Amino acid sequence: MIDQSTVGHAQTFTTVDLPAVLADYHRPHPGVKIEFVEDISPLVLVMQNLLRGGLDMAFIALDDRPLDHPCEVLTSYHEPLVWASR
Predict the structure, then answer these.
(1) Residue ranges of the LysR substrate-binding domain (predicted)?
(2) CA 13, CA 61: separation in Å to the nearest integer?
(3) Which CATH number fits domain 4-85: 3.90.1150.10, 3.40.190.10, 3.30.310.50, 3.40.640.10?
(4) Up-side HSE of residue 63: CA atoms within 13 Å toward CB?
(5) Model confidence over 11-45: pLDDT tens digits?
(6) What burial class does residue 4 get, using C-beta atoms within 10 Å of its C-beta: 0-12 exposed, 13-18 middle, 19+ buried?
(7) Please, which residues have CB within 8 angstroms of residue 1's CB and are 6 or more apart in sequence?
(8) In this model, does residue 82 exceed pLDDT 60?
(9) What is the residue extent of each domain of the chain?
(10) Kind and range of the H or E run holding 84
């Protein structure tokens, strides 16, 4: 069972109500401690932190370049947003 999740995002990421998203996750998983990390770093540094295990998941905005990272990517059908996790 997961007892802690570390969630990150770049500081410029603003199109999602993150407190509401985290609350929606926490309601069915009340025993999971959520650590939220806001990073002022560029996307590449957030991705590096995700890939080396510093983050469990991240909210990021991507352009149309293909990813060369081994991530599972979930996208919204109406937003150019991505949920990537290791």
Answers:
(1) 6-84
(2) 7
(3) 3.40.190.10
(4) 3
(5) 655 566 777 877 888 888 888 888 877 766 666 67
(6) exposed
(7) 31
(8) no
(9) 4-85
(10) strand 81-85
Question: What's at 23, amino acid-wise?
Answer: A
pTM: 0.59
What single letter denotes the amino acid at residue 9? H
Q: And the tokens for 54?
A: 């510093």
DSSP 14-81: -SS-HHHHHHHHHTT-TT-EEEEEEE-S-HHHHHHHHHTTS-SEEEEE--SSPP-S--EEEE-SSSSE
* Greater pLDDT, 49 or 86: 49
